Amino acid sequence: MTIAPLPRSTFGRRRPGGPTDESGPVRWLRRTSLTFIALFGLAPAYWLVTTAIKPDGDVFEFPPRLIPSSLTLSHLSTVLGNHDVLRYLVNSLLVSSVTALGSVAIGSYCAYSFSKFRYRGRRTIMLTFLVSQLFPHVLLLTTMYALFSALGLLNTYLVLIIAFTTFTLPLCVWMLKGVFDGIPDEIIEAAKIDGAGQGVIIHRILLPLVRPGLVAAGMFAFIRGWNDFVFALTLSGDSTRTLPPGLVNTYLSESSNRWPELMAASLVCSLPVVLIFLLLQRHFVAGLSSGAVKA
Amino acid sequence: MSDRVQLTIPGGRSAVSRPSVPRRARRQVFPVLLVLPAVTLLTAVLIYPLIGAVIDAFFDHNLLVSGRTFTGLDNLASAAKDLWPLLRTTLLFAVPATLLPFLIGLVAALGLNQRMRGRGILRSVLLVPWILPGVVVSFLWLWIFDANYGVLNGVLRSIGLIDSNVGWLDSGTGALLAVVVARCWSTFPWMMVMLLAGLQALPAGAIEAAHVDGANALQRFRFITWPSLRPVAGVVVLLEFMWNFQHFDTIYVLTGGGPARATTTFSLAVYETAFKGFDLGKASAIGLLWLAFLLPIVLIYLRITENKS
User: Fold this and answer.
1) Which of A148, A130, A294, A133 is nearest to A232 (CA)?
2) Which one of A37, A109, A189 would you mutate to disrupt binding with B, by most B Cβ within 10 Å of its Cβ?
3) Each residue of B205-229: pLDDT tens digit?
4) CA A246 to CA A257: how far, in whole Å?
5) pTM
6) Mutate: best of B100, B132, B164, B279, partner A, most A CBs <10 A
7) ipTM of the prediction
8) pLDDT tens for each residue of A22-40
9) What angle do CA B5, B6, B11 make, to 5 degrees?
């Protein structure tokens, strides 16, 4: 039996997109608007990358030079040579990785329960998971801050991991529930007849089957942890600060113009998530459209 | 709820097979044990703080002083004084930051739904702005809007739209425009993908048939594409509005709420009152008023997802 853990997304699918013999004005309209949208979507990203790798002379020229006169890696090496930025980078990697592992571990048990069992209160819990995503996180910060401060957890890695894991959990659970739903009950029944206990069924049979889904959910959690700003800003301290609040700390307060360095730092902060995204975009889009659950 | 959520975006994913027979676990304890870690975390980190914030609104609670005293409606009264400016700014940000990306996303989805060269690449690359960390998005637009060397001024001047550099972030209107544009840039890809998923659920034959029957492009959109797209459109607009209503990152980094509080939305006000003013009671009171406006939207969203099942 073959099992497709995640349905093919809108990306992977090749299908005809309606009539190709559209009339001239319509085609012209389509081309023009797409060109403008592509320009709007891509030009800022181009500006980010080129500012990071062109010499200072180009950057502080007005009107701006759209095509760099030469390329340099000096800004990137300045950023990566900055001990603070390096520490933020390591912190981000550490916290986001553990968040991804934790979300997938806790989320897969929860998703398995939601998917394959029926019990009183199940729908209520699932609804609470959904609704919890809709309330402003900034509002939760005040009590969270007081709570974690009372527990003596502020400025630790643990507090960031706990916070990030909690915020990514609902999404991970929704994604993974869809994956478990795709696994026929017969597999579980057969295993039971063979005398397998629940532990064996989950760890030996189901988790290997849903591994692509686990990876996708983990990457989702990683990116959310990596991109988070407001919780890291309030709950972390000097030694545990992650990249987003770290970069704001390092660069934003400075009055001197360090644009190329700031763009280089932005590039460093973006590259990991963009790479992960490009590797797993099909899963991303599937997960995106599956639950109307995002940030 | 699960099936409802999935149904909110028709065609977003192929129908997954549901357990054939709802099976009642022999021992109910086991499935509950499985959800326990997740539920514990959510209760401690999401639900408890939410309730705590609501209660805090009725206390004088300073971050620098331990303990709190009950003050009744004092916090709410003092928060209510700022209510209208805050609500106005929040709407001035959230409404355009929802509708503009929706329109761009819709046009992009319609454009990309057509078979053409480079479609796949364009789709993937256009999603990159959405994946970038919010802080990076803000840094980038801070640089683009820069008054002295910013590329926006440069481009506008070279095509003759403005004569001299504009300090975009120095005026209230300009700053509001800046945060909306930055937010627009980072969210239209999501709209595009969701609407594209909706478009792909549309039976291809319907458009062909209308085409054969002589319907022009506008009629085909009006009578065939749009009606089947409307449910998705409703949900994405509602969700995006909800997220914009509570958005923080871009505004905080790009304008810090300024100049002269012109971009101070509810989320910025709560953050500043709590972590710069250390007044948790008043911050919670602002949050409570904020929730009063958010709650109806949440309920509408739940109603819509409920009706889908």
Assistant:
1) A148
2) A37
3) 777 787 777 777 788 888 888 888 8
4) 18
5) 0.85
6) B132
7) 0.85
8) 667 878 888 899 999 999 9
9) 140
